[in-house]
Design goal:
By secondary structure, the chain is an alpha/beta fold. The protein folds into two domains: 173 residues, Rossmann fold, CATH 3.40.50.1950; 202 residues, CoaB-like (Rossmann fold, 3-Layer(aba) Sandwich), CATH 3.40.50.10300. It is 36% helix and 25% strand. Strands 13-12-9-14-17-18-19-20 form an eight-stranded mixed beta sheet, sandwiched between helices. It has a six-stranded parallel beta sheet with strand order 3-2-1-4-5-6, with helices on both faces. Helix 1 links the parallel strand 1 and strand 2. The longest helix has 19 residues. The protein is elongated, with a radius of gyration of 25 Å. The site of cytidine-5'-triphosphate (CTP) has 14 residues, from helix 12 and strand 17.
Length: 397
């Protein structure tokens, strides 16, 4: 219930992507939001209001002069109690109207009369999107503080290929959830490592660990939601990159180290969430190791670089957050590790329980002591961690 009780106005304008807005409405309701829908005339040509009515459980609004709204004040009444207006799909025509402050139909009037943030998800033909007039309108909207989610490139309903596809409903849901997060890291650059590493034994076998990457991906997403520009250096995991996060995929600890070295410059915060293999096979076999003739097999290991230690040792090092997975004596081990690693903040959890799970229980250790974040879904914990880091940042830099 990530949007529990949130009052959202979902606006639809004319475009074939309107069919995706039906799925978005369903996802919003499922996430706990109270969704009111308003459609332009053109939108009703692509999707029946009945569909949205069934999905949201509320009447759908289409007419500026709707007699159901008292005193013909629909444009004010319908948006007054809303916490967010999300217009998806947002046509070129709608963006132009919103940028100019026109209000000649119900949806544009609601948008103009709003007190809450506005998010638009453009969807249109590539030429319409690239037209300087549309680009100008989008720039104007951004400058006015409007959140512009997408579009993305891809195949278009008109048969052309290019920029202009609306974001998929899941990505839009994530953007809407992000819109409700405080922008605690606005203007900051953040680097995150996540997942396990894989150290080759031979061309088909690896030494690795059971890290799922979920915590690191949650931290990357939470930092992005908080307004940061985020790079995620990720070991091999089965997770989609959070929307708006730049992902650099790596396999081995040394590749991860390289990627961190290349991306850490200019960063304000470094979250070392990855479960980096401390050791790697010293001499990986060039060909697959065969069983015949081998009684026992010993694999000699040599140490990998300590990525976090390297970052903390840099001049102008970013604010570094270490992670520790301990199997016992959490407090004593974690505080000792914080000192040993020389990081201002260490996030500690109990190891086997956290692996692969969607929930976690984390305690933060900093110069002022221990701060239990409690047990919660990893995204929620990541948001609390980001808030803690944001509060420490001014003193730390
Ligand atoms: N880390 C890293 N590079 C490594 C090993 C660890 O950047 N080669 C980072 C991890 O991402 C984590 C922190 O260091 O943020 C702590 O990792 P951990 O493996 O728990 O620390 P170690 O010092 O290796 O302690 P232990 O002996 O408990 O494994």
């Amino acid at each position: 219930m990530t949007l529990h009780g949130k009052k959202i106005l979902l606006g639809l304008t004319g475009g074939i992507a309107a069919y995706k807005a039906a799925e978005l409405a369903r996802l919003l309701v499922k996430a706990g939001a109270e969704v009111r829908a308003a459609m332009t005339d053109a939108a009703t040509r692509f999707l029946a209001p009945t569909t949205l009515q069934a999905l949201t459980g509320q009447p759908v609004w289409t007419d500026l002069w709707d007699a159901r709204v008292r005193d013909a004040m629909g444009h004010i009444a319908l948006s007054r109690d809303r916490e967010l207006i999300a217009v998806a799909p947002a046509s070129a025509d709608f963006l132009a109207k919103a940028a100019a402050g026109l209000a000649d139909d119900l949806l544009s009037a609601l948008v103009l009369a709003r007190r809450c943030p506005l998010l638009v998800a453009p969807a249109m033909n590539v030429e319409m999107w690239e037209n300087p007039a549309t680009q100008r309108n989008v720039e104007r909207l951004r400058a006015d503080g409007v959140l512009v989610a997408g579009p993305v490139a891809g195949d278009q309903a008109c048969g052309e290929t290019g920029m202009g596809r609306m974001l998929e409903p899941e990505a839009l849901l994530a953007e809407i959830e992000a819109a409700f997060q405080p922008k605690l890291l606005a203007g900051k650059r953040v680097l995150v490592t996540a997942g396990p590493t894989e150290e080759p034994i031979d061309p088909v076998r690896v030494v690795t660990n059971r890290s799922s990457g979920k915590m690191g991906y949650a931290v990357a997403r939470a930092a992005r939601e908080a307004g940061a520009e985020v790079t995620l250096v990720s070991g091999p995991v089965a997770l989609a990159a959070p929307w708006g996060v730049r992902r650099v995929p790596v396999r081995t600890a040394r590749e991860m180290f390289e990627a961190v070295r290349e991306n850490v410059g200019g960063c304000d915060v470094f979250f070392a969430v990855a479960a980096v293999a401390d050791f790697r096979p010293r001499q990986p076999a060039q060909a697959k190791i065969k069983r015949e003739g081998l009684g026992r097999l010993a694999i000699e290991l040599e140490p990998n670089p300590d990525i976090l230690a390297w970052v903390t040792a840099q001049q102008n090092a970013p604010f570094c957050v270490g992670f520790a997975a301990e199997s016992e004596n959490l407090s004593a081990n974690a505080e000792a590790k914080r000192r040993k690693k020389g990081v201002p903040l260490l996030a500690a959890n109990l190891a086997p329980q956290a692996l692969g799970a969607d929930d976690n229980e984390i305690t933060l250790f900093d110069a002022r002591g221990a701060h239990p974040l409690g047990r919660a879904p990893k995204l929620e914990l990541a948001r609390r961690l980001v808030a803690h880091v944001a509060a420490l940042l001014p003193q730390a830099r």
